[in-house]
Please model this.
Amino acid sequence: MATSRGESRAGCREIAAWMDDLLRVAEIEDYPFALNGLQLDGRREVARIGAATDACRATIDLAAEAGCDLLLVHHGLFWGGLRPFVGPAYERFRRLVESGMGLYSAHLPLDAHPQIGNNILLAAEFALQAIERFGSFRGNDGIGVIGTVDASREELAARAEAICDQTPIVISGGPERVARLAIVTGGGGSMIEAAAAAGADTFLTGEGNHHTYHEAMELGINVIYAGHYATETLGVRALAERAADHFGAEHCFFDVPTGL
Model:
């Protein structure tokens, strides 16, 4: 739906309330400092919605320069916990306020969404079939997805590289021929055991700790680390598109990969 900037539009709070309902923000427990929802109010009605994986100075600058009225991110401003607004934290906040742009963050609620979540969208990229939910994280059941696939371990690794645009780290702890693939985007290395218990012979996530190599080998499961950032771009793109369609706004995505 096309709308000119001069027409009446929704403000940041109205759009944020709609996204809160869509993502069930009030129902999904997250990290204490994820602070899902509207993190900073905007000063004007929303004609252009920007999206980015991280609320960093680079994405904030890009969104401000593009004339965005609201920026949607997966990782918000407060991951470091309570801290003063000095140094880089102040500069991010200052840039947002001076631009008049609002900031909305959605972390686990966006990972787990059954239609526009990071996990389900990445599963579609791998053409998973007979998809089910698995795993529990911070009291949220079914945080990951698992499904059937017919591919070799090398083929899946190549597909991960094509999708995520970086060479994955592969732990070859399971069979060379893959039948069941589990996915948890981002920093899901702690869920290898849950993936194996759910019947997966291969687990794809963004990153994990050093000890997960031995865990995967001893559990007999392949692990593909495809990059934390790279596995978490799809959900926020889809959220921006859906919000823009609903409210008659433009939308765009700002890609600032970390390689991690």
Observations:
- The CA atoms of residues 106 and 136 lie 18 Å apart.
